[in-house]
Every structure is written in structure tokens, then in C-alpha cells.
Specification:
With 458 residues, this protein is mainly β. It has a single domain (2-457), classed as Porin (Beta Barrel), CATH 2.40.160. 8% of the residues lie in helices and 55% in strands. The strands form two sheets. It has a 22-stranded antiparallel beta sheet that branches. The protein has a two-stranded antiparallel sheet with strand order 5-6. A hairpin with a 2-residue loop joins β11 and β12. 52% of the residues are buried.
Length: 458
């Protein structure tokens, strides 16, 4: 009974305690799950990373020792994001301007059980997200003609994953696994579009509906602002539930070498829905606010294929490498917004994104200093998924090079503490193109991530 209470408490704490999102580092995805994987550059396809292995390759659960294991932990992410107006030289940094913005905290909790050839697991993890907060006084909050609006520009995306995983050791060499994942995602967004951006969307057929005519009928339209934000502990302006899943295998080619492969399906999320305010900014009439219902349609997490190898060089040294292909192109062509005003009228907007598929190489090594201490290090390199011509200041998901270190300290055979630190090197990207920016901008983004887990075997 005590064991069950501990497991339930850990999972509930993870779901309820995720006060803020993790700033994603592989676009909207974290660069590894659990401190063991994170300390080795995010590698997790072909070696034992503990209960967090269910998030990458469920078959690795069979690499864990017999018995039960519980894990609870968190990520702490601090970002360094700066946007510069290349025409005027003005700049603004993403900072803590509201109650639910950085530093960002993401939960991790899991429970696994191994019975002979079978292993089972359930967990609760932040799969990824995004977060920016530029406040309401920068050049991003000025409409066309330099009109100050006092309106926020910010974002907060959080994706939670709750996997139910199992693996089976078919032979001494081959193990297969899979998971069915419940998923939740929530989005806060404050976004100002200048009149030139609105006109560009209309001219390209990307803004339609009866409210388009209402905006065009204003005497001196300067811009339009969407606000779908809740300054709450976890709640978001719009959210949705859905599901996903994974299939995986590992093959022990030699006693020292393991090969692994996994496939994560494209998520099947419902449209995110909630309340929003559309504010028309006019140079003569002022600000005209329309309350209503909003949907962010068909916002999905991508499918991806992961291949990996691990090799024990000596009794102390283990090295690992993963290669991943993430199919962003299939899910991030446009951000689809549908708004219906309470007073009547609607507007549908397609914000172009045109992401490219991404290839990621992860490298890691671990050294067992003694029975109590293991140290780790890793590197991670990714191709750029975002296009400069469609970059939004509030969606700067650009980092693609990481360096990580980590360790595990065993207090006993049952209790272990894992820690990892990873640094995302500064990435710079420009955008001078309508409709996603009015002023020519340069965005720089770097960040630091600390991950800590406690694992207990019984």
C-alpha cells in the first residue's frame, strides 16, 4: 500500500507541479528526457537511461534491473533571448514580465516494473514547449506608424506526455517495446500584427472572414492584436488533449554492443480551444476590443525516427550515439487560427511557418568512477528547422548545438541522484519579410538547462 501511494503521489506531483513550461531546444522538443540521457547529449535509443527511456525507446526498459523503480525530478531552464530592430537599433530581451514566465520549470516522474521478460512503465513528462515574454513597452508593441499600444508580446507553449509503456525480451538478443501516450498541450499567446502585416495576410489569401471587412473599414487601421493568455500556475489560454505513441527495439549484437531503433508517431491532438480578445488598433478610433472564442487548429507534434548504438569500451567506459530524423515539415506549414467574436463576425488566419525536417546527431559518454559515482558528457548537433523568412519574435525556437555534462551519485543500491547540465549555444537568425514581422529583426537565442532526478529501486 505504501508503494502504491508513493507512485501515485509522484505522478500527481509531476502533473500539478509543472508551473511553467520548458523552453524547447530541438524546436518545440526537449533535447533528452531524464538526467542520464541529458548528460550524454540526449542519447537514449540503445542504452539504459532509467525510467525516462520510455519517452524515446520503450524497449530500453528491459535493460533495467529486475524489480520496481520510481523516479521524480525536474528541469530548470533559463533563456537568453534578444530581439533587435535592425532599422532603428532598438532591442528587447525576453524576461520575467508576467507571473508565468521564466525561469522555466518542467516536471518528470515515472514508475517501472520488471517481471521476467516483461517490463512495464507509466510516466508524466514535459515533452517540450516554448516561452517568451517581451512586455508591452518595446518596439514589438508599436503598431504601424510607431503608434505605442501598451499591448503585450509573449508566448507560452507546454506539451505534456503521459506514456503507458511495455517491453518484452523476445530472445537473449532481441527486445521489442511500445507505448500509448496521453498528451496535453496548452498555449498562451499575445501577438501584435502591424497594418502592413495584416494587409500582407489579406493579400495572400491568408486572412478571411467577415471581420476582415470590419478591420478594413476602420478610418486609420494601424494593426491588430490577439491575446489568448492566462497568468495562472498551469492553465493556458487554449488547450487540448490527444494521444501519441512509440514503437521500439534493441538488439544486443555483442555482449558489449547494443543497437536500437524507435519510431514515434505524429500526435493526434484535438484543436486547442479557449477565449481570446482581438483588438483592432486605429489611429483615430483608438483600440477596439472584440471578445470571442478562438481555436488553434491541427497543432501537432511531429513523427520521428531514432537510431542508436551504445558500446561498453571497458568495464568503466560506455559510449553512445543516436541519429534522429524529425518530420517537422508535415506538421508546421502554417499556424491556423480561427476566431469568432461574441458580437458576431469571424476571422480565419494562416500564419506561415514552413518548417523543414530536422536531422539530429547525439553523442555521449559515461565513466564509472567507482560504485557510487558515474560521470557523463555529451554533444548534440541539429539542422535548422525554422526558416528565416517566417521567423516570429515570439517563436524563436532556433538553438541547435548543445554541450552537456552530468553525474549519478548512488547513496545505496536502491537510491540514486542524477544531475545534468546542458548549454545551448547562441543561435542568430534574421527576418526581414512580411507577414511575420513588420520591422527587420535579428533574434539571438541561447539557454542553460539543469536537470535533476531521484530514482529509488525496490
Amino acid at each position: 500500500m505504501t508503494r502504491k501511494k508513493f507512485v501515485v503521489s509522484a505522478l500527481v506531483s509531476a502533473l500539478a507541479g509543472g508551473s511553467q513550461l520548458a523552453q524547447a531546444t530541438d524546436v518545440f522538443r526537449l533535447e533528452g528526457f531524464g538526467a542520464v540521457s541529458r548528460g550524454m547529449g540526449g542519447t537514449a535509443v540503445a542504452h539504459d537511461v532509467g525510467p525516462a527511456g520510455m519517452m524515446t525507446n520503450p524497449a530500453t526498459l528491459s535493460l533495467m534491473p529486475d524489480g520496481d523503480q520510481a523516479m521524480i525530478g525536474l528541469d530548470l531552464v533559463t533563456t537568453d533571448i534578444n530581439v533587435t530592430n535592425k532599422a532603428t537599433g532598438e532591442s528587447v530581451s525576453s524576461d520575467t514580465h508576467s507571473n508565468n514566465r521564466g525561469p522555466y520549470v518542467a516536471p518528470e516522474a515515472a514508475y517501472t516494473k520488471r517481471l521476467g521478460g516483461w517490463s512495464f512503465g507509466v510516466g508524466a513528462f514535459a515533452q517540450g514547449g516554448l516561452g517568451t515574454e517581451y512586455g508591452n513597452g518595446s518596439f514589438l508593441s508599436r503598431a504601424t506608424g510607431g503608434l505605442a499600444t501598451g499591448l503585450d508580446n509573449s508566448s507560452r507553449l507546454l506539451v505534456l506526455n503521459i506514456p503507458f509503456a511495455a517491453s518484452f525480451q523476445v530472445t537473449e538478443k532481441l527486445t521489442i517495446g511500445g507505448s500509448v501516450d496521453a498528451m496535453w498541450q496548452g498555449l498562451n499567446l499575445d501577438l501584435l500584427l502591424g497594418a502592413d502585416q495584416v494587409g500582407s495576410l489579406i493579400g495572400a489569401g491568408r486572412a478571411t472572414g467577415s471581420l476582415v471587412g470590419a478591420l478594413g473599414g476602420l478610418p486609420d487601421l494601424r494593426g491588430a492584436h490577439f491575446s489568448l493568455t492566462k497568468d495562472k500556475f498551469l492553465a493556458s489560454g487554449v488547450d487540448a488533449w490527444g494521444y501519441g505513441g512509440k514503437l521500439g527495439m534493441i538488439y544486443r549484437a555483442t555482449p558489449e554492443t547494443i543497437l536500437g531503433a524507435s519510431y514515434t508517431i505524429k500526435s493526434q491532438m484535438n484543436d486547442m480551444e479557449g477565449r481570446a480578445t482581438l483588438t483592432a488598433i486605429d489611429g483615430i478610433a483608438g483600440q477596439i476590443a472584440f471578445g470571442g472564442k478562438i481555436q488553434i487548429k491541427d497543432f501537432q507534434m511531429p513523427s520521428h525516427v531514432d537510431l542508436g548504438i551504445s558500446h561498453r569500451l571497458t568495464p568503466q567506459w560506455t559510449v553512445a550515439a543516436d541519429v534522429s530524423r524529425v518530420f517537422w515539415k508535415d506538421v508546421m506549414k502554417d499556424i491556423k487560427v480561427a476566431f469568432v467574436a461574441d458580437a458576431g463576425g469571424d476571422i480565419n488566419i494562416l500564419l506561415p511557418q514552413d518548417y523543414k525536417d530536422q536531422t539530429i546527431l547525439s553523442l555521449g559518454a559515461a565513466y564509472e568512477v567507482n560504485d557510487s559515482l558515474t560521470v557523463r558528457g555529451g554533444l548534440r548537433f541539429a539542422s535548422q528547422a525554422l526558416s528565416s523568412s517566417t521567423l516570429f519574435a515570439v517563436i524563436p525556437a532556433t538553438p541547435r548545438k548543445h554541450l552537456s555534462v552530468g553525474l549519478t551519485y548512488a547513496f545505496s543500491k536502491q537510491a540514486k541522484l542524477d544531475f545534468a547540465y546542458s548549454h545551448a549555444f547562441k543561435e542568430t537568425m534574421d527576418n526581414t519579410s512580411l507577414p511575420n514581422t513588420s520591422a527587420p529583426i535579428e533574434v539571438t537565442h541561447a539557454q542553460n538547462n539543469a536537470t535533476i532526478n531521484f530514482r529509488y529501486s525496490f
